[in-house]
Structures are given as structure tokens and as C-alpha cells.
Amino acid sequence: MFSKRISAALAGATALSLALAACGDGGGSSSSSGDTVTSLSILDYYNNDPDKTLVQQGLDACASQLGITLQRETVPGDTLIQKVLQQASSKTLPDVLMLDNPDVQQIAATGALAPLNEMGLSGDGFAQGIVDAGSYDGKLYGLAPVTNTIALFYNTKILADEGVQPPKTWDELKAAAKKLTKPGRYGMAFNANATYEGSWQFLPPMWTNGGDETDLTSPQVAEALQLWVDLVQSGSASKSVINWTQGDVKDQFVAGKAAMMVNGPWNIPSLNETPQVKWEVVQFPVNKTGQTPIAPLGGEAWTVPLNKEQAKQQKAADFVKCLTSDENEMRWAKSRFTVPTRTALGPEHVKEVPSMKAFSEQVANARSRTGKLGDKWPDAAKVIYQAIQLALTGQATAQDAFKKASGG
Amino acid sequence: MVHAPTLTKAGTSDAPSAEPSRRRRGRRHRGEDLTKILFVLPAAAAMIALFGYPVVKNLLMSLQDYTLKTFFTGAAPFVGLDNYVAVVEHQLFSKAMVNTALFTIGSIVFQFVIGLALALFFNKRFALGGILRSLLLLPWLLPLIVSSATWRSILEQDSGILNRSLAWLGVIDEPVPWLNSPSFALIAVIGVNIWIGIPFNVTLLYSGLKEIPGELYEAGALDGATGWNAFRHITWPNLRAVASVLLMLGVVYTVKVLDVILGMTGGGPANATQTLATQSYERSFIDFKFGQGAALSNILIAISLVFAVLYLRGTRRAVDE
């Protein structure tokens, strides 16, 4: 009898607490579905300093402007998509979500994101490539406040010692790389590994030469691949480029084992930590004079996942609008060595951060990876990096590599 | 299913019991049955949650068009065996199969032979033997991602310590492209996996050797069985049970090795080190074709299962004998 009474009491207590919890839940949602949204949750992958702190400053500024508090979560870059998938299946996506720009269309295609242009944002004044990357089916789903790209870094001391001018054409690049190669040092370093990063690094030669991801078997693309092959086969670049990450490339450059490298401005803070290594940046060389260097746009876009609470979704859109305001773009461009995506800010930015000049020029003509193929870009990117691997390991010629890689 | 026989057995044993005490004993029996079930329940629940559910889910997933979209909309249409057809017809499938076989056989043979040699060596008593044997465990204790990153730098073509040492010793003239050449990469990866697996083999074989009674060797020695003969007629037959467990576990562990390969080559260069496991990973987490990834991992499970069945039949025969 006694135990029965206890269990009854327990059951009662459980029911009560469930009811209370339900009440609490209902109260919470009803209060925030009014017009007082007091906090937003954010997910991004800036999990390392200095970026983590610098991004936080921009987020905080916008939060105080909108009078809200933030719950920010940061995860390592390569786990972001897995995290998003977990949250999507458990319906716990954040209010504001950062995505790498080539992923925006893929995620937008799943129907998870809210169109920003229906909430008072627009792509007017932004670089076209940025709008392309953030759009899917004619709607704007993500906007990047700042962007980056890749260009050619060179070690000023080594080039001066060898009497080499920074190359402007591919022939000059090959000649320079050869002349700069000495025992224990390669003239050139780049990343040709079997990941999307390897494809991204191949885009400057491919696009500059008029190649296109919609037709990878074109002679222009093959010529670009031949450049990578020539650099490796002549011994001007290490055979290990097929395994290097961009981080490895930077390490080689910092250690003086590479005189030039293809890399992005996010390396500038760590390059500045070794002041004895003096460097400059130029745009990626062209194959024939008259061509314009075209590089891929990097950087991350901010998106707003669909939210049942309209007010919260609108607030999140307002927050993204604030992040892409002139003020915040300049803040992040200056502190994080990136390029503002509002084209009007370009000249002022270069004046204030002269080391970003080459990147700023390179961005002016840059394209987004998903601009033409949309959410089919990953398939093309995979063919690109596999073709590079085949050609650099001598399993196919530059002419045949793309055909072989696409299974033809 | 597990509980059903227990219940019926209890029911039948109840029937012939004497009339007066029937109710009391029945109740006690029911109580005992309940206890039995309760004892089994945690294990059964754990099995279903941790083993049954993933296997069933994986089987279902391999029959579905399970993509990025599925996570958001929950829609995953059934596509029959399309995923299996797609993965088997893929241009890398046969290569991945061959690589998986080479990787598994190469790893196991050398792990076992070297492990056995070392176990026999440490079975003799000598100074510092214990310390050396525990040092031998180190590769096993390191996180795999650490070992593979370390080996990546050791095997680096230009500045890696292995090529430098070999050149200094005059063994090679040109640096060996361990991880940069499609013809060497698989060998390098197998080599590192052998290095990782040796401690496990040594440990199990060593304990197997310790189980063999010394009297057998003494008796054998009287009959003239020493050295190779002692190994062949005393050590090996007594070690067979341990060895077969070891080989079976070895196959199951090695077929699915992923981290070592991902950490060292990522399946490259030019797909030279792609195995079923790396392909499955790539389909699921790079291409987001989770259905195809699941199909590949089911093929892997099937292969492991074949070896598990072979092992079970082998041990049953041993018992029968």
C-alpha cells in the first residue's frame, strides 16, 4: 500500500512537472512571438583566434545596435555542414547561420533557408559574384559582408637576390620559378590535393585562361592544367603539392622553402608573426597578355534559416543586414584582412590597408564558384581535383585528364 | 524473440505442479521469469539501441535516395537497389575492392608474422624485457590521427626523415615518393597500418604463449623436440585458438580502416589508396549521397560477416574434434 502511494505521488509529480514545463514552453514562445525579440542564436566556423574575436566584435556591435543578446556557437570548419545537418534533422537550426559561400546554394536547395530579399535585404551595391553565390532560383539567401580570394605571394628578398621580377605571364612564372629553385628551395608552391581546396587553387589559371566549369574538356582548361604539370615536372614545384593543404603551402613559404605561393589573405596575420620573411602580393599571372586575371571568390555568407517565429526570422534578417552594412564591412575588412563586398568601399579600403591592394584588384574581377553551376558545382569541383591528381602523377596527360576523371 | 522461449518453458513447467501449491508457486515462477527478463532487458535494450538500430537504419538508408535534402524535409524515397548498382558500377569500385583486399591481406600477414616473432622473442626472459614489451605498446596508444600526421611528415618526399636517413645510408640515390606516387602510396599506407597493428598482435600472442604449460616443452625436449620442432609441434597447436581469434579480429578491424588512410593520403594520390571504407566516407560526407555511402558500408559489413561465419565454423569444428 505504502509503495503504491509513493508511486502515485511520483506519477502526480511527474505529470505536474510536465504540465509546468509545457506551460513554460508555451509562455516562452508566446512572449517571443510578439515584437520583442531579445536574443538570437548564431552558428559559425570562426573557431580560432584572431578571427574568432574579430568576428565577435562585429557581431556584438550589431547586437547592441538591434538591442539583442547573442548566443554564438563556433565549430571547426570541416564539421560545420555535419552540425547543420544534425540541427536540421532535430529542428534546432540557429536563427543566424554562417555558411561557406559555395555551400549556400546547396543548403538553399533543400528549402532550409529564408529568402532575404523578402525581408528587406537586397544585393544592390554588392559585387556580382557575391550575389551569384548567395542566390538560388532567383532569390537571395545569403550575403557575405567581406570576401577573399587567392593571388600570388612572393618572397621579396629571394626574388631580389636572384634578380627576378614578379611574373605577369605564365611563361614568366615558369621561368621565374625555375630560376628561384635552388637545393632545399622550390620556386613555386601551390595546393593540388584531392579536395575542394585543390580545385579552388586551380581556378585562377583555369578561369584566367578562359576555361569554364561547364566544359572541362576544353583546350583552355587543359592548358591551365599543363601549367601545373610543367611547374611540377620541371622541378620548380615539389611533387608533394598533390598532398599539401593551403596551410602546408604557407608553412613552406614561411620556412623559405618556397619563393612564391598561391594563397589567400587569411595568411597575412600569421605571415606578420615572422617579420624576417618579407613578402608582396601580385595578381595571378595570365597565359597571354591581354587576358584578365580571374580568381574565385572566397569567404562566408550569412543566412537566415526558416523560422516558425516570424518576428525572430525578421530580426535575424535585420541582423544580417547590419553585418553587411558599410560600417561592419569596413570593420571586418580592415581587421580580418578581407575585401569588402560593397564595391563602393574598395578604394577607401585599399587606402587604409595597402597590403590588400592586389587582393582588392583580384576580387574586382573574381567569380563565384557556384555562379554558373549552382548546387552542381561540387560535382565539377570533384572532377577538377581528380584530373589534377591524374595529370600530376603522370597517369594521364593534361589533355586527357579531365575526360578520364569524369569517367569518360 | 529472445524472451519467448523462456516464457513458454516456464509455462510448461508450471502445468504439472501439484494443485494446492499451484498458485503460490506459479506466482513465484512468474516472479522469477520477470527477474530473468529484467536481467536480460538492459543488455537487450543496449543491443537494440546500439547495434540493431544502426544496422537496420543503414540497410534502409542504402535502399533510399538519402541526400542533404532528407535532413531538412525528411523525404527519402525508396529506390530499390539503385544505390548498390551505382556504387558497383562506379569506375573506382573495382580499384577500391582490390585495394581493400591488398590492404587487409598485406596488413594482417605482416602484423601477424612480425607480432608472432616479437612475442616469441619476448617470451624468453632477459633484462629489460618487460620494459621493452610495454614500450612496444606505444603505437597502439597513440591516437590514430596523430600517428598518421606524424607518418605523413616522416614519409615526406623532400624533407621527410625516412628519405633523408636512407639517402645518408646510401640505400637510395633519389628520394622515394612514398606518398606522392600512386605506385608507392598503398605500400606506405599498408606499412604504417602494420606498424599500428603489431602491438595488438604481440600482446595477444604473448599472452597465448604464456598459457602454454612449460611441462609440454620439458616433455618435448626429452623426446628431442627443440627449436623449430618445438614450435611446430608444441607452440603452434597450442596457439591456434588465439591465432584464429586474432586473425578474425584483424580482418574485421582492417577491412574498415579509415582514419589512417584519410590522415595520410585522403585516398590519393590519384585515388591510389581508395578502399571501400574511404569510398563510403567520401560518398556520405563529401558527396552527401548517404544512400550510396550506406550501400558501400553494407558491402563492408557483408565481407566482415563472411569472415565471422568462417571463424565460427572453424571454432565449432575445433570443439567437435
TrEMBL record, chain A:
Designated name of the protein: Multiple sugar transport system substrate-binding protein
Organism listed in the record: Kribbella caucasensis
One Pfam family this sequence matches: SBP_bac_8
Superkingdom classification of source: Bacteria
Recorded GO CC terms: ATP-binding cassette (ABC) transporter complex, substrate-binding subunit-containing
Record GO biological process: maltodextrin transmembrane transport; maltose transport
GO molecular function: maltose binding
Transmembrane intervals: none
Keyword entries, A-Z: Signal, Sugar transport, Transport
Signal peptide span: 1-21
Protein family: Belongs to the bacterial solute-binding protein 1 family.
InterPro entries with a match to the protein in the record: SBP
UniProtKB/TrEMBL annotation, chain B:
Region feature Disordered, mapped onto this chain: 1-29
Protein's name according to its UniProt entry: Multiple sugar transport system permease protein
GO biological process entries: transmembrane transport
Keyword Magnesium in record: no
Pfam short name (any one): BPD_transp_1
Keyword terms, alphabetized: Cell membrane, Membrane, Sugar transport, Transmembrane, Transmembrane helix, Transport
Subcellular location: Cell membrane
Domain ABC transmembrane type-1 stretches: 97-311
Family: Belongs to the binding-protein-dependent transport system permease family.
Superkingdom: Bacteria
A GO cellular component annotation in the UniProt record: plasma membrane
Entry-linked SUPFAM superfamilies: MetI-like (SSF161098)
Membrane topology type: Multi-pass membrane protein
